[in-house]
């Protein structure tokens, strides 16, 4: 495989999934602390209380990142560590943790790519309505400004939001994620406020004239119809509208997709004058998280009986990455693109101190190939972050699904480089 010299290779994580130390140094409760403590919400009653204990072991983890030989590390800031009240006064101890982490990364020559919001909203803000409350978008802007001002001289790349579809739909639409509200129409309002928060943060960022690039990360999945019957094609168009265009269109075209009748009706009351101009502010790049595709029939989503699946039950369909990248470039470009997450969960076992995760290695290899194909087809793909550096708290699945290329023994906190990590390391050396 051949990638451009300046191509950025990385690994990614997120605060609540790895940090632990939820009561330390002034951090306040997040919606995930509350949700994971609610019986029945997370598999096995798991919480992020300890997770990978990264808060205390960050030096060891940076050493692992260094050992892999990647260029960049994508991680997220915990809003409740930085602004325990959700707004107002910043917590110096929280900021200091990220300053220490970034200093360590820079010392090792690893570029810090920072996500501002990877789902751990301060619970105090949820108590005021969370993302259903328009004020949360303003609080997000204020929080982002604190981060920009405090860390703007050392961060090389900013991502405002991770996967607003998940925050909105899983959080407020079907309740599978925190804060666990299940009201389909209102999740569209939450999505609008999330995008508005992104637009406001971007506007504030531009005023500071900082050097780093800034963008947003969406979880996109190409949707394929099971047949060419008009009813299947129509269902596929809607699935694409719901998953992909509902976010891409306002961000890159300044309007919600006109063909999404029901969703439009829900969003109209939430859209104030000027919102869409803010949302369509100029991103330096688009981050895409890619895991699988959607296969759609008029009766709903279907699964491919022939397709291999990961431990999440998600079909492995690498060609979908190529199709998606080419499509996004054609319909929404030109815009530099990063794959900010790609990876797979499998049920790993440790055998004589090794983890032979051949399937994960193959998954990555096949997706790298499709990324290379997309570059050859003219897509301005600039980088690729493997999800995830470490096995971690996989949201509603707790510690039951392992996405790491590094195995974590959650009893002892021992880390073991899986075969996929060793493969990635030798791929990068080449
Ligand atoms: O673990 C998550 C991550 O937090 C967001 N993107 C998808 C991953 C796998 O489900």
What is this structure's SSE topology?
Blueprint: E1 8-12, H1 15-18, H2 31-36, H3 54-68, E2 72-76, H4 79-82, H5 92-107, E3 111-117, H6 123-126, H7 135-151, E4 157-162, H8 164-173, H9 184-208, E5 213-219, E6 223-225, H10 230-253, H11 261-267, H12 275-279, E7 285-289, E8 294-297, E9 300-302, H13 319-332, E10 337-341, H14 358-376, E11 381-387, E12 406-408, E13 415-417, H15 419-429
Parallel strand pairs: 1-2, 1-11, 2-3, 3-4, 4-5, 5-7, 6-8, 7-10, 10-11
Antiparallel strand pairs: 8-9, 12-13
Helix pairs in contact: 3-5, 7-9, 8-9, 13-14, 14-15
The chain binds 5-hydroxymethyl-3,4-dihydroxypiperidine (IFM).
For the largest beta-sheet, the strand count, sense and barrel status come to:
8 strands, parallel, barrel
CATH superfamily: Glycosidases
Structural class, please? alpha/beta
* CATH top level class name: Alpha Beta
Strand sequence of the main sheet, in spatial order?
Answer: 1-2-3-4-5-7-10-11
Number of helices: 15
Low-confidence stretches: none
Tell me the overall shape.
globular
Under the CATH scheme, the architecture is: Alpha-Beta Barrel
Mean pLDDT: 98
CA-to-CA gap between the ends? 10 Å
């Amino acid at each position: 495989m051949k990638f451009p010299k300046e191509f950025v290779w990385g690994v990614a994580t997120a605060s609540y999934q790895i940090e632990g130390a939820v009561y330390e140094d002034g951090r306040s409760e997040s919606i995930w602390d509350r949700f994971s403590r609610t019986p029945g919400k997370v598999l096995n009653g798991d919480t992020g209380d300890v997770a990978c204990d990264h808060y205390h072991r960050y030096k060891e983890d940076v050493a692992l990142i260094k050992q892999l030989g990647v260029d960049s590390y994508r991680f997220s800031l915990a809003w409740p560590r930085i602004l325990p009240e959700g707004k107002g006064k910043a917590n110096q101890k929280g900021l200091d943790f990220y300053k220490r982490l970034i200093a360590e990364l820079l010392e090792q020559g690893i570029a810090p790519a920072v996500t501002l919001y990877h789902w751990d909203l301060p619970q105090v803000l949820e108590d005021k309505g969370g993302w259903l409350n328009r004020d949360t978008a303003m609080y997000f802007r204020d929080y982002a400004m604190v981060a920009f001002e405090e860390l703007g001289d050392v961060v090389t790349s900013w991502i405002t939001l991770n996967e607003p579809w998940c925050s909105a739909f899983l959080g407020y639409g079907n309740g599978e994620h925190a804060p666990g509200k299940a009201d389909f129409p209102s999740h569209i309002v939450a999505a609008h406020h999330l995008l508005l928060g992104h637009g406001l943060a971007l506007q504030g960022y531009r005023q500071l004239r900082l050097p780093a690039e800034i963008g947003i990360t969406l979880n996109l999945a190409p949707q394929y119809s099971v047949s060419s019957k008009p009813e299947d094609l129509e269902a596929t168009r809607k699935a694409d509208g719901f998953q992909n265009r509902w976010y891409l269109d306002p961000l890159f075209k300044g309007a919600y997709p006109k063909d999404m009748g029901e969703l439009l009706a829900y969003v109209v009351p939430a859209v104030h004058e000027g919102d869409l101009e803010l949302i369509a502010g100029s991103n330096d790049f688009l981050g895409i998280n890619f895991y699988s595709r959607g296969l759609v029939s008029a009766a709903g989503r279907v699964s491919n009986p022939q397709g291999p699946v990961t431990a999440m039950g998600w079909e492995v369909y690498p060609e979908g990455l190529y199709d998606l990248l080419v499509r996004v470039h054609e319909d929404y470009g030109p815009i530099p693109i990063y794959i900010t997450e790609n990876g797979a969960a499998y049920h790993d076992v440790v055998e004589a101190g090794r983890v032979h995760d051949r399937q994960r290695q193959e998954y990555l290899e096949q997706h790298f190939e499709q990324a290379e194909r997309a570059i050859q087809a003219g897509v301005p793909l600039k980088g690729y972050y493997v999800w995830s550096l470490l096995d971690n708290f996989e949201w509603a699945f707790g510690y039951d699904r392992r996405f790491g290329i590094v195995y974590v023994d959650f009893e002892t906190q021992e880390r073991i480089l899986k075969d996929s990590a060793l493969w990635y390391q030798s791929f990068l050396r080449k």
